[in-house]
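A.,

Following up on our hallway conversation. Structure tokens first:
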């Protein structure tokens, strides 16, 4: 990755391309994960796969992807370029590299959550939960605004900021730490790293961060599908999940999330390193 603060436009372009390819590779598992996290969902993964295929065919696994694709590209642009920008400035004042990477990732995560991830993710969850027929992205937005209202784009905003900032923060921190130690172990300098190195370390780093923030991800899905007003904010949501489902409720969908995170993030970081090398 480019840590010298120059050519941010290159980071923006590379981040967008990496985000688009990454999402396409892992969206079917994202669809199943969201389905599994709904509070009224009783099917296991094989049953969900069979049900989805029988009712909607292969394309059913890509239901709700367009809103996420529209969001994933600018989200990746913001997170990669934001991380590069903040790390360039933070490292002038913060000597601890791990803390610098964590804060840089969290800063970029807050911006992407407010500008892109929260509204797009709300539309995605609502589309999966409510839309039975095929509609264009623009028609889905029109129906969403008519039925839910514009404020529906920001359901669970506080939790999304928490989720996105911690996710990006830990992901970039782990990536930075693992990459430095990986190269040191192999007696190589940072200038010699390749796209393969980025893919390998990126997959491991993202898997670690996903496990840490899975409880936040579960709460986010519940708040975004809270159309029956079961939960009164994210504190109430945390409390009710713990009371009704136990702590294991916070790890619903975790297995599939981790399974798809590694290959998705391998594509994500691998393409980014290739384009910025």
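Then the amino acids I'd put at each of the 277 positions:
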């Amino acid at each position: 990755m480019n840590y010298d603060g120059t050519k941010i436009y290159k980071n923006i372009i590379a981040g967008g391309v990496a985000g688009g390819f990454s999402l396409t590779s892992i969206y079917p598992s994202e669809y199943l994960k969201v389905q599994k996290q709904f509070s009224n969902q009783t099917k296991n993964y094989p049953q969900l796969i069979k049900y989805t295929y029988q009712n909607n065919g292969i394309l059913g696994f890509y239901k709700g992807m367009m809103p996420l694709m529209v969001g994933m590209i600018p989200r990746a642009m913001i997170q990669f370029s934001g991380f590069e920008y903040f790390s360039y400035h933070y490292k002038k004042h913060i000597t601890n590299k791990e803390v610098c990477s964590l804060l840089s990732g969290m800063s970029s995560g807050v911006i992407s959550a407010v500008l892109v991830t929260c509204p797009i993710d709300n539309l995605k969850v609502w589309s999966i939960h409510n839309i039975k027929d095929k509609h264009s992205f623009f028609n889905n937005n029109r129906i969403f605004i008519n039925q839910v209202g514009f404020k529906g784009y920001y359901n669970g905003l506080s939790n999304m900021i928490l989720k996105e900032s911690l996710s990006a923060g830990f992901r970039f921190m782990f990536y930075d730490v693992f990459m430095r130690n990986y190269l040191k172990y192999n007696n190589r300098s940072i200038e010699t790293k390749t796209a393969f190195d980025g893919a390998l370390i990126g997959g491991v780093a993202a898997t670690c961060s996903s496990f840490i923030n899975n409880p936040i991800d579960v709460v986010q899905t519940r708040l975004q599908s809270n159309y029956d007003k079961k939960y009164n904010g994210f504190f109430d949501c945390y409390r009710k999940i713990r009371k009704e489902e136990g702590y294991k409720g916070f790890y619903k969908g975790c297995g599939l999330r981790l399974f798809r995170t590694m290959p998705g993030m391998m594509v994500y970081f691998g393409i980014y390193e290739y384009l910025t090398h």
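DSSP finds nine helices and no strands in the chain. Curious whether your intuition agrees with the design.

B.
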